[in-house]
Amino acid sequence: MTRDATWARHGLALLAAVATLGPVPVRAQAPERPPSSVQVARASLRELAPVVRAAGLVRSRSAADLAAAVPGRLQWVAEAGTAVAAGEVVARLDTRELSLVRAEQAARVNRARVTLSGLDRELERLRASGSAVPRFNVDQAQSNRDIAAADLEVARALLAQTDEQLARSRLTAPFDGVVSDRVRHAGEEVARGDVVARLVNPDELEIRLFVPLRHVRAIRAGDVVNVTAERRAFTAPVSSIVPAGDARSQSFEVLVKAPRVDGLLAAGTTVEVELPLGEPQRRIAVPRDALVIRAEGLYVYRVTKDERAERVEVRSGIADGEWIAVEGGIADGDQVIVRGAELLRGGERVQVVGVYEDTASPARVAKP
């Protein structure tokens, strides 16, 4: 038997065996993976402006350290938290010693006045005598009278000084406010200049913050800024700036007038302030978290009508708060993925399980 005949016989046997076993099963196609859960947001046309953020400290615009103007022993000091009106007494010194000094000086004033009155009468009598009295006696009487008048002025000046010390022994409020701290207590001896109490006006507040020096030309008095305190947002105007920079911190001071917000702000509160650095611009914007940074570029994943993730290449622009401008294939109203895009590659099915909460001010959304 030839070799070709042998191979033919083996081939027929193989075909018979395959026919006996039946048709070969076709491998089943792998099932599509379940949709990825994502959170989405709507791209929107917004008024965006670059801003700088800084922490600010709320303080009273009217605050004073009340110090003793004269030395002595404290007789009474108002309790911390006491509300006082302008001119009302906040603390008093013991004035018994000064009162005794004043009584003595008042007596010296009366004595000098009596002496001067007597010398005035004596001078008038000598002048009325005419040539019967030597000129020397008249001049001597005039001199004695002038010395007595000077003594009276000195006595009055000393009495006025003591009256001033008595008046300054009472520490009065220079403005309406509240005693924020009682530094010294009744019975303590204080020297001139010692702080006795601190007074603040809780109704006149301002926010003090420091901004990088490179932005000194971008911020002006009158600019309206966004302030966040205790997760509540409001706006406030810039009252003034101090353009002189600090060489060590490379910053300058900005003062913002704090509005009355239902008792939300108090002296010592820390707030977050956003200051605009330019004019707002109308741009298509998405939340910052919608941007996906890959080695090959910057992307945003858009949800298509058939609920699939479509990768769209974009370029980022100016940012304002949680929103950032993008240029590319994203249009106003497109649904972009904010959470859950980390593992996507494009084309996968997605399931929307949440919507991004827009915390920006409605005024920032550009009107059509």
Question: What would you note in describing this structure?
Answer:
With 368 residues, this protein is an alpha+beta fold. It folds into four domains: 97 residues, conserved putative lor/sdh protein from methanococcus maripaludis s2 fold (Beta Barrel), CATH 2.40.420; 83 residues, Efflux pump adaptor protein, beta barrel domain (Elongation Factor Tu (Ef-tu), domain 3, Beta Barrel); 57 residues, RNA polymerase II/Efflux pump adaptor protein, barrel-sandwich hybrid domain (OB fold (Dihydrolipoamide Acetyltransferase, E2P), Beta Barrel); 73 residues, Orthogonal Bundle (Helix Hairpins), CATH 1.10.287. Helices cover 23% and strands 40% of the residues. The strands form five sheets. Strands 2-17-21-20-19-18 form a six-stranded antiparallel sheet, with no helix packed on it. A six-stranded antiparallel beta barrel has the order 3-12-15-14-13-16. Strands 4-11-9-6 form a four-stranded antiparallel sheet, with no helix packed on it. The protein is rod-shaped, with a radius of gyration of 45 Å. The chain starts with a helix and ends in a 13-residue tail after the last strand. The C terminus is likely disordered.
